[in-house]
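Section handout, structural biology tutorial.
Before the tutorial, make sure you can parse a SMILES string by hand: atoms, branches in parentheses, ring closures as digits. In the record below the ligand is pyridoxal-5'-phosphate, and the chain has 424 residues. In the tutorial you will relate the predicted structure tokens back to the input. Do not try to memorize them.
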Amino acid sequence: MPDPRRAIPRTDAVLAEPRIAKAAGTLGRDLVKAIVNAVQQAARVGEIAPADVVDTVLARLPAGASSLRPVVNATGVVVHTNLGRAPLSGAALDALTAAAGATDVEFDLTTGERARRGRGALAALAAAVPDAGGVHVVNNNAAALLLCALALAPGREIVVSRGELVEIGDGFRIPDLLASTGARLREVGTTNRTSIRDYAAALGPETGFVLKVHPSNYQVTGFTSAVPIGELAGLGVPVVADIGSGLLTPHPLLPDEPDATSALRAGAAVVTASGDKLLGGPQAGLLFGAADVVERLRRHPAARALRVDKLTLAALEATLRGPEPPVRAALDVPVESLRRRAEALAEALGADAVASVAAVGGGGAPGVELPSAAVSLPARYAAALRAGEPAVVGRVSGDRCLLDLRTVRPQEDVKILEAVRRCG
Ligand SMILES: *Cc1c(COP(=O)(O)O)cnc(C)c1O
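Predicted structure of the complex:
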């Protein structure tokens, strides 16, 4: 009996197969070779037939050189932190690609001299929030708060309501972040109620600023009161407002969600926000404020450690100047159109279309329910869909796996159709 292991194709032969050779060109030869060797080993121990080595290698090749896998977000959570928050717009993607090589991010092509870094993105931000005398961009909103504490309250007190001591996620807490700079947190009021007198009593020569944090991932209801920015601004110390979600102007569907323009008009000295929540752009921390205050932030030594790269600047500018990004489309799409898409998919799949409730997500508007529509499948589909390419992530509810269409872009419906069929 001949040893079947001798039929296992040699590494060189497998790597020479045209489709595998092409993959080695984009993924790197080492990565592809490691997959080939693993598959040969599987054949040696009899897990697969020698004749299946090439097909198995092809099936195991990743779609790209990064191990990050593309996901269709069918969870119904618009800003899903674990799925990378905002998906970028086509305009932002194009801008990223164009900026990826050498680019004039800090160079004036007319004079041939150094220029203000990221001036295009800063100009777009300033144009979007004309009430801001100055704007600045850092790595994320946490970095924006860090910079405020370092530059505006070094070794001094930051006055904040006990109702606004927020844990952002993954165990990170805004009060700890601020205290890590050496500033001291001066907590005022109670969890449910804080009055202007509480703030006033805490102010003194040690005060750096009053911090107003939007409770973006929880709600305190019942016997509550909080002090609006407008009243805090009357206290005579700078107010830093962390609005969280990155709305630049009010959104009609989210009346309780703060926005940068309104916060500045109410008298905030600085407004901080994320770029990758409701703004729909890349991860970034946005700072808006009076020109002199923003200049202090920009010139602080730590600003250099918190600065963003050219890719972020490119994507941010394109998000601001380009067409409506996917996050905004997901908020604004009428439920009837979602229902029609769910029915069409359900009919093609022999499944049910059901009413669903989507959410904005950890990025803002806690408690807001967005009417939606979903394709309902047995729960066992959830794991199989996650394992697909692209992975489809739905929401398991009881014994059902719901694919909520509010967070699915219309051009992704066909991917859902194919993915579910492959699981069938
Ligand atoms: C999300 C959020 C943050 C953290 O923002 P990152 O951009 O993730 O650093 C801080 N404050 C509030 C109110 C938030 O909602």
